């Protein structure tokens, strides 16, 4: 029978926010899109309402909206005499451009289709720094084999390592022409997805004109075309055949379409390629963008793009003053994308050691330094994104540099509302993390050597762990099978991790990553420079031995108790047999035995057995029945504990390396203070604390002390003698 509108809207609300409590649902609310965002969202609703108008009114309205939006965008981004295609997927514009070029270069493609392509195979050239999967997606949508896609490497000798190698591209095109292929289209970057570098668009345009190729440009740096000052490399994009603009992320507008601007003279081919449509409803895609551009105005659009450029420049200036931070930017004066990474030369860590005398461990660390730096920069990017979420930094993988931290405000600042103070906070967090990274990197080798020298510990090399290292306590098995040994190893290392986390320290101990980590290990996180590595390793080894000894003690006690029970059963059985012999056979008969016991009772002392857990032996219970109390036995041995814990000052946490000077000063001052107190206690009562003793006074004090000691000795001696001896001594003294 259908539902009313209130019920349907309630259902939509429940699906959006869930049927949870209001406190929980408040955190799931939509982000604050602002008034300009509401204008963009309103455009979708208006487009649906406008679509129900009559055909003539709808045609006039859609033509006005489409022409206005296209004109504004072409003027704003300096693209003269261009047409526009509005699409939801940012790759759809390039796909339509490829179809347009195929229709243009193959005249009989409309009639013969793929047969024309078979006679002369088309080739599309894409930079190796382009978006991942872009070439494969184009081939799948166009129905072309992957052999039609040619990836052009970037520079290796001269220029930026993220720019397309123009000389190599020229050789590739010549080779394809010699093999009878048709160079069709070149996709260049004005801001690569990773590092934000711009290809040499001027030279690429000349090359495309030489071979009659189509040049398509995309990238985040195209947004700077709206500014007053533009670099020459980006300005060359205005001469290309087509470009794709993603205004939604640049201006912080939700649900607005991407735009592909292009120049072409034949409208019929554009219609065949799908770049234009005869349906008025298709033209309404530009309505949200039409409303948003009018709301922001030219000054508002330029101000947002300019603000993003200022944020990247502010961060770049601060990064230049930081040690161990390496930046990878195209232009230090104006770079919309800032890419940086933590880097420290291994040669600076030990300048006294020679390369010829380097140990095997150090050589292995140098060989694996790329993996270690990737891991550390991954951790750094995650920490910065968590501490300063408004900055919008993320982690990116580059082909040559490895793992880096990227700041691209043109893609994030308008949505997140990034301000200058967020950049300052990001720099402050980075300054706090750099000492932690350097300290951990320097102490990794020392930790590895200490663990390898310590008996009972096994060092696990895990290059993907951002921290001091990974250690495992080796369980000394005594002929146990693998399954039981594995369980015992897991039990000991789990208990070891629990004990380490109970200590008062700044270190983080864990079981490692959820996926891909080693089993039965203790993972140690980032550390500071005041870490005492030897104390840490000693504590881990001592705690592991303590857990192992307790485990073995429990196992031995279980075995001893089992053997003691068996021995007690045998002794009790033997005692029962002896009792039967003492009582006789008649006493075992039910009726006769009762009568005989009544006339002549048999007195037998109970003979039980008790098991002493401390001594591990069986003892008789006769003493218990005589004294009516259970003996305590010997004192059990103390539980083995670690004696390697160092004495720490009040408030000092574990594994902290204290300075020797401060320790010596505190010990000396405390000892001298105690000596002063002892001297004050030993002064005579009549001498004030501030009065000095002369020689005569010192003699008098000594004579008093000797006389007092002699009197005390005589009194003590007389108290200990019997009365007769005392009288005899008195008479002798009288004589």
UniProtKB/TrEMBL annotation:
One of its GO terms (biological process) is carboxylic acid metabolic process. Residues 673-684, 711-735 have a biased composition (Basic and acidic residues). Residues 558-585 form a coiled coil. InterPro entries: GrpII_AminoAcid_Decarb, PDXDC1-like_2nd, PDXDC1-like_3rd, PyrdxlP-dep_de-COase, PyrdxlP-dep_Trfase, PyrdxlP-dep_Trfase_major. Residues 624-735 are annotated as: Disordered. Gene3D superfamilies: Type I PLP-dependent aspartate aminotransferase-like (Major domain). Residues 335-441 form the PDXDC1/PDXD2 second domain. This is Pyridoxal-dependent decarboxylase domain-containing protein 1. It comes from Certhia familiaris. The gene is Pdxdc1.
């Amino acid at each position: 029978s259908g539902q009313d509108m209130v019920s349907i809207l309630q259902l939509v609300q429940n699906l959006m926010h869930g049927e949870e409590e209001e406190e929980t649902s408040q955190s799931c609310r939509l982000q604050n899109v602002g008034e300009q965002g509401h204008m963009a969202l309103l455009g979708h609703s208006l487009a649906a309402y406008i679509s129900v108008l009559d055909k003539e009114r709808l045609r006039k309205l859609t033509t006005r909206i489409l022409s206005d939006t296209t004109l504004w965008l072409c003027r704003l981004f300096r693209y003269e005499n261009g047409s526009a295609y509005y699409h939801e997927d940012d790759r759809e514009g390039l796909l339509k451009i490829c179809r347009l070029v195929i229709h243009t270069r193959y005249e009989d493609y409309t009639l013969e289709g793929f047969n024309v392509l078979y006679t002369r195979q088309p080739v599309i050239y894409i930079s190796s720094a382009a978006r991942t999967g872009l070439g494969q997606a184009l081939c799948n949508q166009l129905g072309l084999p992957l052999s039609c896609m040619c990836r052009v490497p970037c520079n290796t000798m001269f220029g930026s390592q993220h720019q397309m190698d123009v000389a190599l591209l020229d050789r590739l095109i010549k080779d394809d022409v010699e093999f009878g292929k048709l160079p069709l289209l070149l996709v260049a970057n004005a801001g690569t997805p990773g590092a934000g570098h711009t290809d040499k668009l001027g030279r690429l345009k000349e090359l495309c004109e030489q071979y009659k190729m189509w040049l398509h440009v995309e990238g985040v740096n195209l947004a700077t075309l709206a500014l007053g000052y533009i670099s020459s490399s980006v300005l060359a994009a205005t001469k290309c055949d087509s470009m794709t603009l993603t205004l939604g992320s640049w201006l912080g507008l939700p649900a607005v379409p991407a735009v592909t601007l292009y120049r072409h003279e034949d409208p019929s081919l554009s219609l065949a390629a799908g770049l234009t449509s005869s349906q008025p409803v298709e033209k309404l895609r530009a309505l949200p963008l039409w409303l948003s551009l009018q709301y922001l105005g030219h000054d508002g659009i330029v101000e947002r793009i300019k603000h993003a450029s200022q944020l990247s420049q502010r961060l770049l200036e601060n990064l230049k003053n930081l040690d161990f931070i390496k930046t990878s930017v195209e232009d230090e004066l104006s770079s919309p994308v800032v890419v940086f990474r933590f880097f420290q030369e291994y040669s600076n860590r030990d300048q006294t050691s020679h390369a010829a005398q380097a140990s095997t461990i150090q050589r292995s660390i140098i060989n694996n330094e790329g993996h270690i730096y990737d891991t550390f920069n991954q951790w750094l990017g995650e920490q910065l994104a968590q501490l300063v979420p408004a900055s919008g930094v993320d982690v990116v993988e580059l082909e040559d540099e490895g793992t880096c931290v990227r700041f691209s405000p043109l893609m994030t600042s308008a949505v997140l509302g990034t301000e200058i103070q967020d950049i300052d906070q990001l720099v402050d967090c980075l300054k706090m993390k750099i000492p932690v990274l350097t300290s951990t990197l320097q102490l990794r080798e020392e930790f590895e050597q200490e663990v390898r020298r310590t008996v009972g510990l096994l060092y696990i090399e895990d290059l993907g762990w951002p921290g001091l290292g990974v250690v495992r306590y080796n369980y000394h098995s005594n002929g146990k099978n693998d399954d039981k040994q594995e369980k015992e190893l897991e039990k000991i290392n789990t208990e070891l991790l629990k004990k380490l986390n109970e200590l008062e320290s700044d270190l983080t101990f864990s079981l490692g990553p959820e996926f891909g980590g080693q089993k039965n290990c203790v993972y140690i996180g980032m550390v500071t420079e005041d870490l005492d590595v030897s104390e840490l390793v000693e504590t881990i080894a001592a705690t592991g031995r303590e857990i192992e000894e307790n485990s073995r003690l429990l196992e031995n006690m279980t075995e001893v108790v089992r053997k003691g029970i068996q021995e007690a059963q045998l002794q009790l059985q033997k005692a029962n047999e002896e009792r039967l012999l003492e009582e006789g056979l008649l006493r075992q008969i039910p009726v006769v035995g009762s009568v005989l016991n009544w006339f002549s009772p048999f007195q037998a002392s109970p003979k039980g057995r008790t098991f002493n857990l401390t001594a591990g032996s069986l003892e008789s219970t006769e003493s218990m029945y005589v004294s009516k109390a259970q003996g305590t036995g010997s004192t059990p041995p103390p539980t083995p504990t670690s004696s390697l814990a160092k004495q720490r000052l009040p408030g000092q946490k574990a594994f902290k390396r204290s300075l020797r000077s401060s320790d010596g000063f505190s010990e000396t001052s405390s000892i001298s203070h105690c000596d002063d107190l002892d001297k004050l206690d030993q002064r005579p009562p009549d001498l004030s604390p501030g009065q000095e003793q002369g020689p005569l006074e010192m003699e008098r004090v000594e004579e008093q002390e000797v006389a007092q000691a002699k009197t005390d000795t005589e009194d003590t001696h007389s108290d200990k003698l019997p009365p007769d001896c005392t009288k005899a001594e008195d008479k002798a003294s009288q004589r």
